[in-house]
Amino acid sequence: MADTLEFNEIYQEVKGSMNDGRLRLSRQGVIFKNSKTGKVDNIQASELAEGVWRRVALGHGLKLLTKNGHVYKYDGFRESEFDKLSDFFKAHYCLELAEKDLCVKGWNWGTVRFGGQLLSFDIGEQPVFEIPLSNVSQCTTGKNEVTLEFHQNDDAEVSLMEVRFYVPPTQEDGVDPVEAFAQNVLSKADVIQATGDAICIFRELQCLTPRGRYDIRIYPTFLHLHGKTFDYKIPYTTVLRLFLLPHKDQRQMFFVISLDPPIKQGQTRYHFLILLFSKDEDISLTLNMNEEEVEKRFEGRLTKNMSGSLYEMVSRVMKALVNRKITVPGNFQGHSGAQCITCSYKASSGLLYPLERGFIYVHKPPVHIRFDEISFVNFARGTTTTRSFDFEIETKQGTQYTFSSIEREEYGKLFDFVNAKKLNIKNRGLKEGMKQSYDEYADSDEDQHDAYLERMKEEGKIREENANDSSDGSGEETDESFNPGEEDDDVAEEFDSNASASSSSGDGDSDRDDKKPAKKAKIVKDRKPRKKQPESKKGKDPNAPKRPMSAYMLWLNASREKIKSDHPGISITDLSKKAGELWKAMSKEKKEEWDRKAEDARRDYEKAMKEYSKADSHRGERSKKKKKKQEKLVKGKGDKKGATSKSSSSKSPAKGMSDSFKSKEFVSSDESSSAESKKEDSEDEGAASPPPSSEDSGSGSD
């Protein structure tokens, strides 16, 4: 027979809630590790008194009773595992695993039995239900009636808050059955009463969570936080972990107490108690116990009179009373030498501490993540600036934590730490310079479909098309020059049909690159014709082919009415979410069918675009003919100006020369367009016309 038995996905019943975890049975005893909190319950084999196997809601369950009265319940077993467990209990624990079924008659009249910390309501020999008395928060009595009130369960949607028992009167003298019932409950109930004197008191400590100044009274079994507005009583059994963390400024210390279950104030739950101390604060402490009691209870861990830093005294007392070790940062050191990293989580800035077995973030809200619950980590580029990056952690339960605005200098240290702890890094190639885009690896999970994201992409494409069609000036140049894929041919045709636009945009770009002194003059000349260019297309061409839809959008258009009929009155937002869920759950074969339809639509679009481009080229030829007519008109006006200057040059050669030069410039700036081809024609004309004008002026003087 094997020395150990292991069971996954076992549920432990604790205060009415079912905690998922792993159960291991060995020769030494029973160990259960909670998957959510990482808390480990260890039951020694010598402490086991009884084992019961029974049918429960989640299959079959195992109830273990210890010799000191504690009860442990584990559910989620299969019926076939009974023989294996029974043999193991006989061989290693010398116990018979008894089978007891719950009574399901539905009667409400029976017998109450108190066994250890358990109240059992039985009908005959079969139990109907059991109540762990540690769940009881208050017990009140009335005439022939006892009322039990319970702690609220934060993990359950519905909590049992009250049970009333009717206790019939008896004929025995001197014994009140109602008071006897209540005393049995109160002796085991989780009702904290501050009786006796506190061991010690720490006054006016600064508390970050819950916020305020509190006096901390240390009692033998619980911690009492006394503030101006609220009081909290924290049993030491609810303390899960203790942390002592140095602040980045090296002048303050955080003392963090992890609690499970958390303390409550209204609807707020505090899973962490965070105290902030100054390193310079000292205290002399005297325990309210004699030296013999101190030595007997704490075995040298505390003395009656102690002195030192305030944070050292608080942590030392808590460690001795809670009997748990204090976790401090390991060997991690950031870029500045501190043992933490400055970052932001949600809306607040705080400090992230890499520990030997996890990460802890303080302080608002506090977060503790163990390495064994991390699925992978991810290094992402900052969304607002390249001088910082984001550190993302995703747990095995699917919860994601994003710590943002981390300085770029911390990247190497944090990456080496994560790598040394052998955590799964989602984007391995990022360390060599962080040049990869976040989008390249953020959406690597192709199985997930975001309907909202698809809709935003489609709307973005439509806005881009409208911007390309309706914009003018430099905006038109920028948008059209970045059109992807099949649109390149379409853009080229448009530019070919109007050479002035392409030449002016080319000159504009060269001017920006070369930064020549003539930039100012060219910009003034080029800006004028740009306003004339979009006259032919102020709106989108209705004859232009429409862009093809994606496979998802084709499926959505075909399925929209069916979704509406299946869910009457559904809103547009909820319809998009529902469609995304249906698309994600769709089989691969059905998705391939819509992919083929999308591919056919894309081919039809390309074919239609070619035909549209040919028609557009014919329009371009007509515009070229119109351009040639304009050039002839310009040349005709130039000849008339030359004749005028020839007749007027008889008076003064210098004046005739200046008038002739002025007329050429006047013609080129006023009549020509901003296109380079037209400017070259006008410059050639100006260069050819001066010789005859000078000759004419000479003959006139003769």
From TrEMBL:
Q: Where is this region: Disordered?
A: 458-551, 609-702
Task: Give the highest taxon in the source lineage.
Answer: Eukaryota
Q: Where in the cell is it found?
A: Nucleus, Nucleolus; Nucleus; Chromosome
Tell me which SMART domains the record gives: HMG (SM00398), Rtt106 (SM01287)
Query: Which spans does this entry mark as compositional bias, Basic residues?
Result: 517-531, 621-630
Keyword check for DNA damage, yes or no: yes
State where composition is biased (Low complexity).
497-507, 644-660
> What UniProt keywords apply to this chain's record, in alphabetical order?
Chromosome, DNA damage, DNA repair, DNA replication, DNA-binding, Nucleus, RNA-binding, Transcription, Transcription regulation
> Which parts of this chain does the entry mark as a DNA-binding region?
545-613
Its biological purpose: Component of the FACT complex, a general chromatin factor that acts to reorganize nucleosomes. The FACT complex is involved in multiple processes that require DNA as a template such as mRNA elongation, DNA replication and DNA repair. During transcription elongation the FACT complex acts as a histone chaperone that both destabilizes and restores nucleosomal structure.
Matches recorded under PANTHER family: FACT COMPLEX SUBUNIT SSRP1
The protein's name in its UniProt record: FACT complex subunit SSRP1
Q: Which organism is it from?
A: Oxylabes madagascariensis
Taxonomic lineage of this organism? Answer: Eukaryota, Metazoa, Chordata, Craniata, Vertebrata
